[in-house]
Amino acid sequence: MSAGITVDDLTKRYGPVTAVDGLTFEVEPGVVTGFLGPNGAGKTTTLRMVLGLVTPTGGRALIDGRRYGDLDQPRRVVGAVLEATGFHPGRRGRDHLRIIADAAGLPRPRIEEVLDRVGLTDAADRRVGGYSLGMRQRLGLAGALLGDPRVLVLDEPANGLDPVGMVDLRDLLRGLAAEGRTVLMSSHMLSEVAQTVDKVVIVAAGRLRYAGPLTELTGAHGETLEAAFLRLTSDPASDSGTGPDSATDATASSAHH
Ligand SMILES: Nc1ncnc2c1ncn2[C@@H]1O[C@H](COP(=O)(O)OP(=O)(O)OP(=O)(O)O)[C@@H](O)[C@H]1O
Known about the structure:
It comes from Streptacidiphilus jeojiensis. The protein is an alpha/beta fold. Helix content is 37%, strand content 23%.
């Protein structure tokens, strides 16, 4: 029933640049997992490999045990929001969703359900060009939810949200996880992430720095997520998990299984 994400020795090189460097971690159903790292850490590249949009140089990324390209009905298994762009500005929100639903063979009544779920019912007949960034984020999420997927992959879903939008997003993601779905979200907003996620995966320079429960990360050192993040990502050249600071049980067991 439940489906997770497996990232196994995943590597992506662009010429001399190693964007993702032997990354291994699991994302479980039933919780929200935050995917964190400094700019250029390889988060977007990793998510794009999970979604079959970028071909790995090595290793593999699996959803429900299969590569994205091998899923029978991908939109029913995984919903993704990569960027809140690419919307046709003259199109109305509901029409945007209708086009996705029709193309993917998804039932139209589902459109009203997802509009309601993301709080866009009242704005559904307005043109997307007039939407705020936060509304576009929610429309993207609505599109991802159309296929009622068990797995959600969200790149920076909190970008552009005001405080009320943040709280709404948090409640929505936690609700989706509570239904047994797998939710993986990247974010730069650490204080927001700390209130939203149960688990975190932290990368720097394409390599894993930590994968495990948020409470073990912050609890082990009695620090904030921000402090732990800075500690784990401040020296991208050093190996993770081998220094005295980063060799917590959780890091060691998760990063070196
Ligand atoms: N198509 C590409 N061609 C060449 N280099 C790339 C390409 N895509 C990403 N990179 C490089 O790979 C590295 C990782 O980039 P990526 O966008 O995955 O990081 P990120 O963690 O998502 O960063 P940000 O938080 O800034 O979005 C960067 O050095 C980036 O310049």
